[in-house]
Request: fold
Amino acid sequence: MLFAAKKHQNQGSVLLLAIFIAISLTIFSLSYFRMMRAARNTDHRLGQQFVARETALMLREEAMAIIQRDCRDRRSQIFWFLLGAVAGAEMEMRLPFASDYISKLLQPGFSCEVSSRLKVVNFINYDHRSRYYASGKEGHGILAVHIEVTLLDERGGGKATVIKESLHSQYDYLVASMLSLDSRGSRLLRPLTLRHDRQTFDSYSSLQIEDYEESPVPEEDPAKIELYDRITLWRARNLRVNDLEQMLIIDRERKILNLYGICHCADQIELAGDWQIKGKGVLIADSFNIAGALKKSGNEDMLVLYARKGKITVDTSEKIEAALIAINDKHNGTVESRQALNLSGMLLADYLNLDNWSNNTHRVSFDKALLDADKSYQISVSPWTNFRSGARN
Reply:
């Protein structure tokens, strides 16, 4: 009887264990299938979020390419939006390429709505020493680019929002005049100005100055003239010649000077051969050697060459369409011409020693494009992001 009781007890324990194992397997199976279904749902949602994120990034890249291009074009809406814009100003932006390409990223039955807005976060028109610039349009600002992407599920006949991606990026931008403005406008008003040299040139001089009837009498002492002294308006500082070439500001292969903004180079710049000038800009360097023509592509193009330490040497009789400036703190900035100078622009130096010039007749004529302060502004937007915020479901 005792053996039979023990046998019955053992059979009951085995049965309970079997039931426990069966229940455990059922719970595990249910949990496993729930986990796998959740994983598939998570993977699907992560995939949708990835598409939304990639779409937003693609839209931002196109927006920045358009901004960088249009900031150099006075005919563009973005140029005028940023020129003297006040904090809080906004505009919608159309991004045609990315918008057309988005459909290739989406699964059948899904669509996408996108929007892109530009906003001026702030703008100040004074430098780091709290000195106001001559023009209220010159200054520093922060531009925000806000991209929003909404994925929609249209498989049920309606439009159900699946996920939203919001990308908010901020960039520095700079507005500067290429004419070193003062309260009267352009400061490059005369065909020839010498800061520390009182010699005059008449019809018998080897240097012939165009009779510019509108040339004003300078109101300030020439010795006190300082140009492009607000370094906070310089787009780039302490570049090397190789940097200018890599940025294609100096395109030696095609012989083009692609200009926009004020760029400082801590080298001597050599310009050999004939060059084409595109855009408006100021190149500041230690010194310059010019051995070929410098010709503008259009009437509104503008080149200013400013030697801050040495001199500007011209070794060509071809036409030079530029403003040549050679002034420095040592008062020894000068321009020398080894052939018959043919300059259309203006010339500003500390002094001129014509004994160091070639035995030719040299001519300086004034380019009236240097008077047009309203057309002298250039806008530069930084290529890097200062701030970026991310996604929301």
